[in-house]
Design brief:
This protein is of the alpha/beta class. It folds into two domains: about 180 residues, D-Maltodextrin-Binding Protein, domain 2; about 160 residues, Periplasmic binding protein-like II (D-Maltodextrin-Binding Protein, domain 2). The protein is built from 15 helices and 15 strands. The strands form two sheets. The protein has an eight-stranded mixed β-sheet, with helices on both faces. Strands 8, 9, 10, 11, 12, 13 and 15 form a seven-stranded mixed β-sheet that branches. The termini are far apart.
């Protein structure tokens, strides 16, 4: 098995043309394979590589064309352009739910999908295979000599007490661009009004806005940021430089996103997409940690914090904040709080 994985071909693959914006595209497996799965995903290549190579070790004649996009670009690719992908993976549960609700998915049922807990699937269209907490990542250097916050209110107090130390050094998502950031923000706001107080404090301290978790974690690691709010804890914990920062699961509440997978209705290779989906689900629910350790390595931590977890539930309730009026209203309130122009 190890030799099979090490012998897999990993090359940069030319970006395809199209209106949706591609961040990275990589081909795994035999370069000229006649059997190929096209995957569009919001997940970093670094994080998903073990999962893909694990699947290919059991399917040595198959190749995986893995395309990385933002959650909003994935939505555009599937719903507006109906681009030809066999599997779609996203952290934006609400946008995935909308794709399923609007008929852009091919229903699928198997022993693996039926074995999922009810809260980890929606109909026969959408399946969860990770539990990933929204965390607060803190620079160890910036917080040297300061008490570590355990709650959002603690963080508000520290930021207010040391404005010069944290001005321009707080990062969070740009909700106008990040589907995951918008999902986390709307869920936070439903749980507690403290979200809005924290957003106003971050805005007053010239918060820096980002597209994605990885960029925020990079900037905390290098010292450009002191605080990154609502980043994916699994991404942070899978890095080699964890000695430079602290990953905090806030004790007031921790929002937990479930990464989901679906098969688009116009998938060209459903006969390959289906076993790929089954593999993701079986690894996630039957043998968490192998071989996709990066995506599952905080589940034990989550188990220790069960009382404070707020799992986002799959289902039509996720469509509420995608309503045009509600989304415009929410973004206007967020812009007023974070930009303060």
């Amino acid at each position: 098995m190890r030799h099979l994985i090490l012998s897999l071909v990993l090359i940069l693959y030319p970006f395809t043309s199209g209106a949706f914006e591609i961040e990275e595209q990589v081909l795994f497996g035999p370069e000229n394979s006649a059997r190929m799965i096209r995957v569009i995903s919001t997940g970093d290549v670094r994080v998903f590589e073990p999962m893909i190579t694990g699947f290919l070790a059991e399917n040595t004649d198959v190749a995986v064309d893995y395309t990385v996009v933002s959650s909003s670009e994935l939505m555009k690719a599937i719903s507006q352009e109906e681009a030809s992908f066999d599997v779609a993976i996203s952290s934006a549960m609400d946008l995935q739910t909308k794709l399923a609700n609007d008929g852009f998915t091919a229903p699928y049922s198997s022993q693996a999908t039926e074995a999922l807990p009810e809260w980890a699937r929606w109909r026969q269209d959408l399946f969860a295979f990770t539990q990933e907490p929204a965390t607060i990542v803190l620079s160890k250097e910036a917080f040297a000599g300061l008490p570590l916050p355990q709650t959002r209110q603690d963080l508000i107090s520290i930021l207010r007490q040391h404005p010069d130390k944290f001005r321009g050094k707080i990062g969070t998502y740009d909700l106008r661009q990040s589907g995951l950031g918008y999902l986390f923000a709307t869920q936070d706001s439903r749980t507690s009004e403290v979200y809005w107080r924290l957003t106003e404090v971050m805005g007053a301290l010239d918060a820096q806005l980002y597209c994605c978790s990885s960029d925020m974690i990079n900037d905390v690691s290098t010292g450009k940021l002191a605080v990154a709010y609502n980043v994916l804890g699994n991404y942070a914990l899978s890095r080699a430089d964890t000695d430079r920062f602290i990953v905090l699961l806030p004790s007031d509440f921790t929002t937990v996103m479930m990464r989901t997978v679906l098969i688009p209705r116009n998938a060209q290779n459903k006969e390959l997409a289906e076993p790929f989906v089954d593999y993701l689900l079986q690894v996630a629910w039957n043998n968490a940690g192998q071989p996709s350790k990066q995506l599952y390595n905080s589940i034990m931590t989550l188990a220790q914090k069960e009382d404070s977890l707020r799992r986002i539930r799959l289902g039509p309730g996720l469509l509420i904040f995608l309503d045009t009026y509600k989304k415009r209203s929410f973004l206007t309130a967020w812009e007023n709080a974070i930009l303060q122009e």
